[in-house]
Amino acid sequence: MNSSLSGAEPRGSRPKRFLSPASIMIYSILFIAAVYYLIPLYVMVMTSLKGMPEIRLGNIFSPPVEVTFQPWATAWNSACTGLYCEGIKVGFFNSMKILVPSVILSIIIASVNGYALANWRFKGSELFFTTLIFGAFIPYQVMLYPLVIITRNLGIFGTLTGVIVIHTIFGMPILTLLFRNYFVSLPPELFKAARVDGAGFWRIFLQIMLPMSLPIFVVAVILQVTGIWNDFLFGVIFAGTKNFPMTVQLNNIVNSTQGVKEYNVNMAATILTGAVPLLVYFFSGKYFVRGIAAGAVKG
Amino acid sequence: MHSVLIKDLSLNFGSISVLKNLNIEVADGEFLVLLGPSGCGKSTLLNCIAGLLDISDGQIFIKGKNVTWEEPKDRGIGMVFQSYALYPQMTVEKNLSFGLRVAGLPAAEIQKRIAHAAEILQIGPLLNRKPAELSGGQRQRVAIGRALVRDVDVFLFDEPLSNLDAKLRSELRVEIKRLHHKLANTMIYVTHDQIEALTLADRIAVMKGGLIQQLDDPLTIYNRPRNLFVASFIGSPAMNFLKGEIVDKDGSPVFRAADLDISLAAYRPQQRLAPGHAVIFGFRPEHIAISGQAGPAGCSCEAIVDLDEPMGADSLVWLKVAGKAISVRVDSGRRYQPGEKVFLTFNPAMASLFDAVTENRL
Prior knowledge:
Family (chain A): Belongs to the binding-protein-dependent transport system permease family.
InterPro entries (chain A): MetI-like, MetI-like_sf
Keywords (chain A): Membrane, Transmembrane, Transmembrane helix, Transport
Strand order of the largest sheet of chain B: 6-7-8-3-9-10
CATH architecture of the largest domain in chain A: Orthogonal Bundle
Largest sheet of chain B: 6 strands, mixed
CATH class of the largest domain in chain A: Mainly Alpha
Oligomer: heterodimer
Structural class of chain A: mainly alpha
Structural class of chain B: alpha+beta
Main location (chain A): membrane
Distance between the termini of chain B: 33 Å
Low-confidence stretches of chain B: none
Number of domains of chain B: 2
CATH topology of the largest domain in chain A: MetI-like fold
Subcellular location (chain A): Cell membrane
């Protein structure tokens, strides 16, 4: 028998079939799904680059004949949000002022909470944890009015501090769960070894646990940044008119009833508002999935 | 003087009693092994001694000091864990010095102790590496070093070799024994591996269900197990057991199971063997001889070979006796064929007799 004949015998690594019926199926479904989700974004980007006369022609899928960045500039600098016409940039900076302290504060508190609940079990710690988690399932609407009264009595209603405190509180259940599950999944012997070495509560947290927790902190940051950035309800209630976040300002721009609806400006403002969470996902999606999986498996 | 003294120690998790009224006295420089199947409470006991678990009742003394309520760091102990528990983000040197830095020791003293430990454990070249860059054996050595630098009276080992492969395990076992000879510290060592227990220990505490079944030196545990559990847990291949009763034959006790009679004249019982007593006769595979011809009457019988397992130095031959499969350790020079007829000679002096009901040694 010659070698070409014996080559027909199965031998070595199995040949890969690139276009099996199953993979054609999978890829076509994925392609359709991707197109389906991308079409609105495409329409938004195209519309925001057109002038008003071109938009009135009604061809929403056609690319702009004449590309203009004027709507973006208008949206950022001079679009009218109710009485003021200073653009959405005011909202952007307000959102930043709410976002940064809320994220930092809630993550610091939740990580210490999670660490304590995972490693320093005390009498009633499980009950405490259950109560905290239960808080995540109570609809926000139930708590709004009491919270308004509480913050008013504390003198922080309608202030930056007020909305930051609210965001920090509402971040607690899910973040504590996230951190607790992560710390529970770390080898308990590390904690024991550190105790034998004489380290206390804070030293173990800061020198042993924290350096091992980067993935879960990344997840927490992503969760909080997107959650707080996208928030509308707490912003409109607790922040006060001067501190309205970007989402509220966007709403005011888009829903202003006076004059012509400037679709291109609205689209640009919307993309600008959505850009922050979009960029966060874009650059850290890998960590996000990894961390969610790490936090979720053990509980 | 005792080094570690455990008095009436009990531990309950809710309504579950994990450790029941334990009393152990460990002499200065002694190597005590806590041995038992998983879930027997041996690691829990070690954690109690270390102060990592709060006990429900009793007292713990280390070097004459009552440490029952002390923090782990104040008990004068160093601990080595199964998973090494090295701080992953720190270099070996930082791992070794962490406890000393926490205690606020001067840098010169820290350097001295690290150099000393590195020399004993031969980890000098590894000091600047991270744990992830070490092999399993090296990691365990660093973990031992972390206990060593603390300059403590008592070393606690929690299954330190269980994560290593067989070859490395036997190497490190020898090293730990050598380390014990060199340091002469008290060591308490938890394992489920009976070979580790038998080779390392001055005394072994065999545990089951939160109770100590027997606390003796390895040879006593091996040769004169106090109850059926200890007898069946220790020894590989395991001890053979035959159920039967005591009968009187010409004034001397005889063990009888089905058609098998074994004279117990040479057995040293702890109490009188009453005829009619239901007992379990236990004998190790090496305490029974087989040959092609009948031996002296009274302790010899016929059996049919079932299987022959050569293990290199010797062979394990499985036989059917009195309806039960038993194993016999023989010289590997002669192979036995299945179905072959052989004669057995028991050595009652090395056998163990247990009450069939209480399962205690007779």
